[in-house]
Predict the structure.
Amino acid sequence: MRIGKRKIDTFPYLMCLPAIILFTIFIILPFFDGLYMSFFKWDGFSEPEFIGLRNYSNSIHDSLFWLSMKHTFIYAILVTVIKNVLAFLLAYILVRKVPFQTLFRTGIYLPVTLSYVVIGVLWSWVYNPTFGLINSFLTMIGKEEWILGWLSDPDIALYSVVVVDVWKWLGYHMVLYLAGMQAISKDYYEAASIDGANGFKQLIHITIPQLNSTIVVNVLMSLTGAFASNYDIVNVMTGGGPANSTEVSLTYIVSNAFRYSNMGKANAMSMILFAFVFVFGFIQLRIMSREDGYDV
Protein backbone atom coordinates (compact mmCIF):
# COMPACT_ATOMS: atom_id res chain seq x y z
CA MET A 1 0.00 0.00 0.00
CA ARG A 2 1.25 3.49 -0.88
CA ILE A 3 0.29 6.76 0.80
CA GLY A 4 1.74 9.58 -1.25
CA LYS A 5 5.36 8.64 -1.83
CA ARG A 6 5.63 6.49 1.28
CA LYS A 7 5.13 2.74 1.08
CA ILE A 8 3.40 1.07 4.02
CA ASP A 9 3.94 -2.62 4.76
CA THR A 10 0.47 -4.05 5.46
CA PHE A 11 1.72 -7.52 6.45
CA PRO A 12 2.17 -6.73 10.22
CA TYR A 13 -1.32 -5.25 10.34
CA LEU A 14 -2.81 -8.30 8.62
CA MET A 15 -1.03 -10.56 11.13
CA CYS A 16 -2.58 -8.58 14.00
CA LEU A 17 -6.03 -8.59 12.45
CA PRO A 18 -7.21 -12.02 13.79
CA ALA A 19 -6.24 -11.05 17.33
CA ILE A 20 -7.98 -7.68 16.98
CA ILE A 21 -11.15 -9.36 15.69
CA LEU A 22 -11.19 -11.89 18.53
CA PHE A 23 -10.48 -9.17 21.11
CA THR A 24 -13.33 -7.10 19.71
CA ILE A 25 -15.79 -10.01 19.69
CA PHE A 26 -14.99 -11.41 23.12
CA ILE A 27 -13.90 -8.30 25.06
CA ILE A 28 -15.00 -5.00 23.52
CA LEU A 29 -18.52 -5.96 22.40
CA PRO A 30 -19.42 -7.80 25.66
CA PHE A 31 -18.15 -4.80 27.63
CA PHE A 32 -20.45 -2.36 25.84
CA ASP A 33 -23.31 -4.86 25.99
CA GLY A 34 -22.81 -5.10 29.76
CA LEU A 35 -22.68 -1.32 30.03
CA TYR A 36 -25.95 -1.09 28.09
CA MET A 37 -27.69 -3.76 30.21
CA SER A 38 -26.60 -2.07 33.44
CA PHE A 39 -29.39 0.46 32.84
CA PHE A 40 -32.08 -2.23 32.72
CA LYS A 41 -33.87 -4.47 35.16
CA TRP A 42 -33.49 -7.96 33.72
CA ASP A 43 -33.64 -11.49 35.09
CA GLY A 44 -32.08 -13.06 32.01
CA PHE A 45 -35.35 -14.37 30.57
CA SER A 46 -38.11 -11.75 30.53
CA GLU A 47 -38.18 -8.49 28.57
CA PRO A 48 -35.61 -5.98 29.96
CA GLU A 49 -37.11 -2.93 31.69
CA PHE A 50 -35.24 0.36 31.50
CA ILE A 51 -34.66 1.78 35.00
CA GLY A 52 -31.86 4.30 34.39
CA LEU A 53 -29.26 4.56 37.14
CA ARG A 54 -31.23 2.57 39.71
CA ASN A 55 -28.90 -0.44 39.43
CA TYR A 56 -25.93 1.80 40.17
CA SER A 57 -27.76 3.37 43.11
CA ASN A 58 -28.66 -0.05 44.50
CA SER A 59 -25.05 -1.21 44.10
CA ILE A 60 -23.64 1.86 45.83
CA HIS A 61 -25.99 1.33 48.79
CA ASP A 62 -25.27 -2.41 48.98
CA SER A 63 -23.01 -2.94 52.00
CA LEU A 64 -22.12 -6.49 50.94
CA PHE A 65 -20.90 -5.23 47.59
CA TRP A 66 -18.51 -2.82 49.29
CA LEU A 67 -17.38 -5.57 51.65
CA SER A 68 -16.59 -7.72 48.61
CA MET A 69 -14.72 -4.79 47.04
CA LYS A 70 -12.69 -4.41 50.23
CA HIS A 71 -11.80 -8.10 50.15
CA THR A 72 -10.89 -7.81 46.47
CA PHE A 73 -8.43 -4.98 47.06
CA ILE A 74 -6.91 -6.71 50.11
CA TYR A 75 -6.54 -9.88 48.06
CA ALA A 76 -5.03 -8.09 45.06
CA ILE A 77 -2.54 -6.01 47.05
CA LEU A 78 -1.35 -8.93 49.20
CA VAL A 79 -0.99 -11.26 46.22
CA THR A 80 0.89 -8.63 44.20
CA VAL A 81 3.34 -7.72 46.96
CA ILE A 82 4.05 -11.25 48.18
CA LYS A 83 4.36 -12.78 44.70
CA ASN A 84 6.78 -10.16 43.47
CA VAL A 85 8.98 -10.12 46.56
CA LEU A 86 9.28 -13.91 46.69
CA ALA A 87 9.67 -14.27 42.92
CA PHE A 88 12.43 -11.66 42.89
CA LEU A 89 14.29 -13.35 45.76
CA LEU A 90 14.00 -16.79 44.19
CA ALA A 91 15.22 -15.47 40.83
CA TYR A 92 18.11 -13.71 42.55
CA ILE A 93 19.13 -17.00 44.14
CA LEU A 94 18.63 -19.19 41.07
CA VAL A 95 20.41 -16.86 38.66
CA ARG A 96 23.56 -18.08 40.38
CA LYS A 97 24.87 -21.60 40.09
CA VAL A 98 23.17 -23.63 42.81
CA PRO A 99 22.85 -27.42 43.15
CA PHE A 100 19.82 -28.96 41.41
CA GLN A 101 19.02 -25.60 39.81
CA THR A 102 16.90 -27.09 36.99
CA LEU A 103 14.95 -29.22 39.46
CA PHE A 104 14.14 -26.20 41.62
CA ARG A 105 13.05 -24.11 38.64
CA THR A 106 10.81 -26.89 37.37
CA GLY A 107 9.27 -27.52 40.79
CA ILE A 108 8.54 -23.84 41.39
CA TYR A 109 7.05 -23.37 37.92
CA LEU A 110 4.95 -26.58 37.92
CA PRO A 111 1.88 -25.09 39.72
CA VAL A 112 1.51 -22.54 36.90
CA THR A 113 0.52 -25.38 34.56
CA LEU A 114 -2.36 -26.51 36.80
CA SER A 115 -5.88 -25.09 36.52
CA TYR A 116 -7.51 -23.11 39.31
CA VAL A 117 -10.01 -25.92 39.88
CA VAL A 118 -7.24 -28.48 40.42
CA ILE A 119 -5.32 -26.06 42.64
CA GLY A 120 -8.46 -25.24 44.65
CA VAL A 121 -9.38 -28.88 45.26
CA LEU A 122 -5.79 -29.79 46.11
CA TRP A 123 -5.40 -27.02 48.69
CA SER A 124 -8.85 -27.69 50.12
CA TRP A 125 -7.48 -31.10 51.06
CA VAL A 126 -4.29 -29.55 52.41
CA TYR A 127 -6.35 -27.17 54.57
CA ASN A 128 -8.88 -29.82 55.65
CA PRO A 129 -9.28 -29.55 59.46
CA THR A 130 -9.58 -33.34 59.95
CA PHE A 131 -7.11 -35.02 57.61
CA GLY A 132 -5.42 -32.05 55.97
CA LEU A 133 -1.67 -32.01 55.51
CA ILE A 134 -1.06 -28.87 57.58
CA ASN A 135 -3.05 -29.85 60.67
CA SER A 136 -1.82 -33.47 60.48
CA PHE A 137 1.77 -32.20 60.42
CA LEU A 138 1.11 -29.90 63.39
CA THR A 139 -0.38 -32.81 65.30
CA MET A 140 2.61 -35.00 64.45
CA ILE A 141 5.12 -32.48 65.86
CA GLY A 142 2.99 -31.84 68.94
CA LYS A 143 1.81 -28.33 68.07
CA GLU A 144 -1.95 -28.87 68.38
CA GLU A 145 -2.34 -25.32 69.68
CA TRP A 146 -1.36 -24.05 66.22
CA ILE A 147 -4.15 -25.98 64.53
CA LEU A 148 -6.65 -23.64 62.88
CA GLY A 149 -9.69 -23.80 60.66
CA TRP A 150 -7.81 -22.46 57.68
CA LEU A 151 -10.91 -22.11 55.51
CA SER A 152 -13.59 -22.06 58.20
CA ASP A 153 -12.23 -19.26 60.39
CA PRO A 154 -13.51 -15.89 59.08
CA ASP A 155 -10.39 -14.14 60.39
CA ILE A 156 -7.91 -16.13 58.30
CA ALA A 157 -9.89 -17.69 55.42
CA LEU A 158 -9.11 -14.89 52.96
CA TYR A 159 -5.40 -15.03 53.76
CA SER A 160 -5.40 -18.81 53.30
CA VAL A 161 -6.73 -18.32 49.77
CA VAL A 162 -4.09 -15.63 49.14
CA VAL A 163 -1.38 -18.18 49.98
CA VAL A 164 -2.76 -20.54 47.35
CA ASP A 165 -2.82 -17.85 44.64
CA VAL A 166 0.77 -16.88 45.46
CA TRP A 167 1.85 -20.53 45.31
CA LYS A 168 0.24 -21.01 41.90
CA TRP A 169 1.76 -17.98 40.14
CA LEU A 170 5.09 -17.64 41.94
CA GLY A 171 6.98 -19.63 39.31
CA TYR A 172 5.62 -17.54 36.43
CA HIS A 173 6.86 -14.27 37.89
CA MET A 174 10.13 -15.89 38.97
CA VAL A 175 10.84 -16.84 35.35
CA LEU A 176 10.26 -13.25 34.20
CA TYR A 177 12.62 -11.89 36.86
CA LEU A 178 15.14 -14.60 36.03
CA ALA A 179 15.10 -13.68 32.35
CA GLY A 180 15.57 -10.01 33.24
CA MET A 181 18.51 -10.74 35.54
CA GLN A 182 20.22 -12.93 32.95
CA ALA A 183 19.98 -10.08 30.43
CA ILE A 184 21.95 -7.67 32.66
CA SER A 185 25.49 -7.27 31.40
CA LYS A 186 28.12 -8.77 33.71
CA ASP A 187 30.33 -5.76 32.97
CA TYR A 188 28.29 -3.72 35.45
CA TYR A 189 28.98 -6.17 38.26
CA GLU A 190 32.67 -6.48 37.39
CA ALA A 191 33.07 -2.71 37.43
CA ALA A 192 31.20 -2.48 40.73
CA SER A 193 33.41 -5.20 42.25
CA ILE A 194 36.52 -3.32 41.20
CA ASP A 195 35.12 -0.20 42.92
CA GLY A 196 34.60 -2.24 46.09
CA ALA A 197 30.79 -2.60 46.01
CA ASN A 198 29.58 -5.68 47.87
CA GLY A 199 26.68 -7.94 46.83
CA PHE A 200 24.02 -5.86 48.61
CA LYS A 201 25.16 -2.60 47.00
CA GLN A 202 25.22 -4.29 43.60
CA LEU A 203 21.66 -5.48 44.18
CA ILE A 204 20.44 -1.99 45.12
CA HIS A 205 22.35 0.03 42.55
CA ILE A 206 22.58 -2.36 39.58
CA THR A 207 20.13 -5.25 39.67
CA ILE A 208 16.98 -3.43 40.79
CA PRO A 209 17.41 -0.35 38.53
CA GLN A 210 18.20 -2.55 35.52
CA LEU A 211 15.06 -4.62 36.25
CA ASN A 212 12.70 -1.68 36.58
CA SER A 213 10.85 -2.45 33.33
CA THR A 214 10.51 -6.10 34.38
CA ILE A 215 9.21 -5.02 37.78
CA VAL A 216 6.61 -2.75 36.14
CA VAL A 217 5.37 -5.62 33.97
CA ASN A 218 5.30 -8.11 36.83
CA VAL A 219 3.48 -5.81 39.22
CA LEU A 220 0.92 -4.80 36.61
CA MET A 221 0.29 -8.41 35.58
CA SER A 222 0.02 -9.50 39.22
CA LEU A 223 -2.40 -6.74 40.04
CA THR A 224 -4.70 -7.14 37.06
CA GLY A 225 -4.54 -10.93 37.36
CA ALA A 226 -5.54 -10.83 41.02
CA PHE A 227 -8.53 -8.62 40.22
CA ALA A 228 -9.64 -10.70 37.24
CA SER A 229 -8.96 -14.29 38.27
CA ASN A 230 -9.86 -14.52 41.95
CA TYR A 231 -13.35 -15.88 41.21
CA ASP A 232 -12.27 -19.42 40.31
CA ILE A 233 -10.10 -20.14 43.31
CA VAL A 234 -12.41 -18.46 45.83
CA ASN A 235 -15.47 -20.20 44.42
CA VAL A 236 -13.81 -23.63 44.51
CA MET A 237 -12.26 -23.30 47.97
CA THR A 238 -14.77 -21.30 50.01
CA GLY A 239 -17.68 -20.14 47.83
CA GLY A 240 -17.36 -16.72 49.46
CA GLY A 241 -17.69 -17.96 53.03
CA PRO A 242 -17.52 -18.38 55.90
CA ALA A 243 -19.79 -15.49 56.84
CA ASN A 244 -18.86 -13.66 53.60
CA SER A 245 -15.26 -13.40 54.82
CA THR A 246 -13.88 -14.42 51.41
CA GLU A 247 -16.61 -12.84 49.30
CA VAL A 248 -14.82 -10.96 46.53
CA SER A 249 -16.45 -8.71 43.98
CA LEU A 250 -16.53 -11.33 41.22
CA THR A 251 -18.20 -14.01 43.36
CA TYR A 252 -20.79 -11.47 44.54
CA ILE A 253 -21.42 -10.27 40.98
CA VAL A 254 -21.92 -13.84 39.75
CA SER A 255 -24.26 -14.56 42.67
CA ASN A 256 -26.39 -11.54 41.76
CA ALA A 257 -26.47 -12.55 38.12
CA PHE A 258 -27.30 -16.25 38.41
CA ARG A 259 -28.44 -16.95 41.97
CA TYR A 260 -30.64 -13.88 42.38
CA SER A 261 -31.38 -13.40 38.63
CA ASN A 262 -30.47 -9.73 38.77
CA MET A 263 -28.48 -9.28 35.59
CA GLY A 264 -28.85 -5.51 35.52
CA LYS A 265 -27.37 -4.98 38.97
CA ALA A 266 -24.60 -7.50 38.26
CA ASN A 267 -23.62 -5.52 35.16
CA ALA A 268 -23.71 -2.27 37.10
CA MET A 269 -21.41 -3.69 39.77
CA SER A 270 -19.10 -4.96 37.01
CA MET A 271 -18.86 -1.43 35.59
CA ILE A 272 -18.08 -0.01 39.03
CA LEU A 273 -15.38 -2.65 39.55
CA PHE A 274 -13.94 -1.90 36.11
CA ALA A 275 -13.77 1.81 36.91
CA PHE A 276 -11.89 1.17 40.17
CA VAL A 277 -9.47 -1.28 38.57
CA PHE A 278 -8.84 1.04 35.61
CA VAL A 279 -8.06 4.04 37.82
CA PHE A 280 -6.00 1.97 40.27
CA GLY A 281 -4.01 0.32 37.47
CA PHE A 282 -3.49 3.58 35.58
CA ILE A 283 -2.13 5.36 38.67
CA GLN A 284 0.16 2.45 39.49
CA LEU A 285 1.43 2.20 35.90
CA ARG A 286 1.97 5.96 35.67
CA ILE A 287 3.99 6.07 38.90
CA MET A 288 6.17 3.10 37.98
CA SER A 289 6.60 4.27 34.38
CA ARG A 290 7.96 7.62 35.54
CA GLU A 291 10.56 5.77 37.58
CA ASP A 292 11.54 3.89 34.44
CA GLY A 293 12.12 7.08 32.47
CA TYR A 294 9.07 7.16 30.23
CA ASP A 295 5.62 8.62 30.67
CA VAL A 296 2.14 7.15 30.06
Remarks:
- DSSP finds twelve helices and four strands in the chain.
